[in-house]
Specification:
The protein contains ten helices and nine strands. It is extended, with a radius of gyration of 35 Å. The strands form two sheets. The chain has a five-stranded antiparallel β-sheet with strand order 1-9-3-7-6. A four-stranded antiparallel β-sheet has the order 2-8-4-5, with no helix packed on it. The protein is α+β, with helices and mostly antiparallel strands and 349 residues long.
Length: 349
């Protein structure tokens, strides 16, 4: 019976079908089917040529105006970190810069190539200095900088957070510790050119990031001095050299504003610069430059922006001309737009 039953079972045809999945179609929606009203332009040759021509017409005048503005900027750049090393110390520059007993005073002479109208901006430029290094950027405490009640907060300020006896450093961190400390004095003939260092930092930084009641404490009191010292009798919001330095640069070559000369300079004027070459860039093969520059409506000297606009505008003009020639010499018949899917089946059903 069992064999017979088994035989009848095996010969009873196909097994029962597996349960089917829910095959119900989802509810139709123009949103999910991407059939909402939209701009679906057809790029005809006329449209393409017109767009490229329009971009060229807009970009080329902007590029020309940018280059003209940049060319009006007068700039004097003087690299001095190698020239200011005594000849007997050129083979050991690190020992020279670390020896406090050696006089670091250096005299440079600058010649004005063209008339420079005030204000003349004085910058210091550093090359090969990576202010954007992750550990360097993090080595600060913003709460401490703007609130006197949080002077003891030195989190994330390693390795410059406390003194040897555990007292907090204000301002703490590597950024403040490495503050640039070269100084410049300018003379034109027998006349001293004063440098205005007021309002050289961002107003938002002075008002919101550095407290008016926060004063330096235990700053640069260790055995290893990183850079400039701060006036303990002036609040951090008044110490604008620090505020400028604390706005870290994104690239390893950068300029920071030192001050402004508010006197016109004439062509062929000779400026004598007496500087203190204190800042150590020799340990990492860095470069130091003094920059005097005027400004235009576009800012400082920047040829790249004008060249970029001219390149894009010229390329668009070239493409427009090439497409026009191709269209006139060997035109192609445009397809019938009624065959496009959104024209042929606009409802999607």
């Amino acid at each position: 019976m069992m064999n017979q039953a088994g035989g009848s079972t095996s010969g009873s045809g196909d097994a029962a079908p597996a349960p089917r999945r829910n095959s119900k179609r989802p509810k139709y929606s123009r949103f999910t089917q991407q059939e909402l009203p939209a701009c679906k332009p057809i790029l005809t040759p006329q449209w393409v040529i017109s767009v490229f021509t329009l971009i060229g017409v807009i970009f080329i005048p902007i590029g020309v105006a940018s280059l003209l503005a940049s060319n009006k900027v007068v700039e004097i750049v003087d690299r001095y970190e190698t020239e200011c090393v005594p000849k007997n110390m050129t083979n050991d520059k690190v020992a020279y810069i670390r020896n406090a007993a050696i006089d670091k005073t250096c005299t440079r002479t600058l010649k004005v190539p063209k008339d420079m109208d005030q204000p003349i901006y004085v910058y210091y430029q550093l090359d090969n200095f990576y202010q954007n290094h992750r550990r360097y950027v993090k080595s600060r405490n913003d709460a401490q900088l703007k609130d006197a009640g949080k002077a003891n907060e030195t989190d994330s300020c390693d390795p410059e957070k406390t003194t040897a006896d555990g007292s907090p450093i204000v301002p703490c961190g590597l950024i403040a510790w490495s503050l640039f400390n070269d100084t410049y004095r300018f003379t034109l003939g027998n006349k001293n050119l004063s440098v205005n260092k007021k309002n050289i930092s961002w107003k938002s930084d002075r008002n919101h990031k550095f407290g008016k009641d926060v004063y330096p404490k235990n700053f640069q009191n260790g055995t290893l001095i990183g850079g400039a010292k701060l006036d303990p009798n002036k609040s951090l919001s008044e110490q604008e050299d620090l505020i400028v330095w604390m706005r870290t640069a994104a690239l390893p070559t950068f300029r920071k504003l030192y001050g402004r000369i508010e006197v016109d300079l004439k062509e062929n004027d000779t400026i004598t610069v007496t500087l203190e070459n204190n800042y150590n860039t020799y340990s990492f093969n860095g470069k130091k430059k003094l920059v005097l520059s005027t400004a235009s409506w576009l800012g400082g000297k920047n040829d790249f922006l004008g060249i970029a606009y001219l390149t894009v505008g010229g390329s668009c003009f070239f493409l427009a001309t090439a497409f026009t020639v191709i269209y006139l010499v060997k035109p192609r018949k445009l397809g019938d737009p009624s065959y496009l899917s959104w024209n042929r089946n606009p409802s999607g059903r």
